[in-house]
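From the shared-data thread, chain only:
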Amino acid sequence: MKNYTRRSFTLSALAGASLTAACGNGVGSSGAQTIDARVDTTLNYLYTNYPNTRSLEDKSVGMLVMPLITEGGFIVGGGYGRGALRINNSTVDYYSATKGSFGLQIGAQQFAHVLFFMTDDALSRFRRASGWAVGADMKYVVQDQGGNIRADSTTGASPVIAIIFGQAGLMAGASLEGMKYTRIIP
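Structure, as tokens:
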């Protein structure tokens, strides 16, 4: 009976942490205007702090901007966020991102990411899918030791380039592995 009580407490704590973690990432927001405002702020931050990412925007055919992904976990983890797909600097669709994980983990974190679609085919496959999961055709770009994001000719040849930035929290690493994107109506 004692194990049942501990298990119930742990599951309740995880459920509560998940609901709390969802605060501030677009859950219950006023909709499209709020998401678009957050996307604009995120892009301004990205281009101001990492100016060489502008060349990715210029070369891309579209980009999915997720202003805030909140994730947490204690053995079992999850994450959620909402963002917008932009083509030619205009929002064409809204998406949610959900993530689930299981393993040796503890903590919570928040981060932003942008997926740059570098080919028409990659963008088309993303838009046609009912739910698109991160695949092997994605190249990750991370912050280097000098505080700058590197995007070179190697990353430019990838169909999708993911930039993860603005990490805050106490969880080891930010990853898009296991992330699923689904079109939503805000």
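The helical segments are 2-21, 32-49, 54-59, 120-128, 153-156.
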